[in-house]
Amino acid sequence: MSRFVILGSANAVPKVGQDNTHLLLETSEKTIMVDCGDNPIVKVTAAGSSILKVTDLILTHFHADHVGSLPLLMMGMWLEKRTTLLAIHGLETTLSKAKSLLELFNWQDWKEMFPVQFNVIPDEGMNHFIVDSECTISALPVVHLVPTIGLRVKFTGNRSVTYSCDTEPCENIHKLALQADVLLQEAAGAVKGHTSAEQAGRIATEAGVKKLILIHYDNRIDEDQLLSAARRHFNGEVLLGKDMLVV
Ligand SMILES: [Zn+2]
Q1: Domains and CATH numbers, the chain
Q2: pTM to 2 decimals?
């Protein structure tokens, strides 16, 4: 039985009660984290899982609100005496910067360090890079300020959830979101490399999704203002993503 939890829903600046956007996906075979901005260890634990159970970490792009706690997460796993393999997935540029970040902490000298495997996601075409008996996770590059991937998770029984990650409206977010049951769409605002709530509604309609969940927004903005902006162009169900919401 799979479970998809929003661990954090904030834009780049975390707020009280709203950590940077990161996600947890559990299947009977895998525990997959998407990004690790400000508070991943506490949030994974609060979601009833454990950093020792995490099998895969997807890094969507190399911005501090998405990878800033990578050294802390890795050190926590090591101090908790993890022994099992951790697979870290991302674009080549993301992974090479992630390695450089870890090297600043001399992680190769950590005694009895658990095994880590880096899996490069090519930056073109739809890549099905994680497959187990309950889900397939695919990535496509989206349009942000640095190389970034958006994700689509297809569960058995044909249910699917799309996570836009940080992107402005683009062709690939439409491909990722096409006929999805749920679209987790960033709504940081109408600026370069990002999407507004109103644009999110338009993407949801054009892609024919059933439910739209806004994420990566500023919780100081009036909730009704965000929701009504999204509803201007989308007639389906619209929710605001909140920390610890189960999708
Ligand atoms: Zn971000």
Answers
A1: 3-240 (3.60.15.10)
A2: 0.97
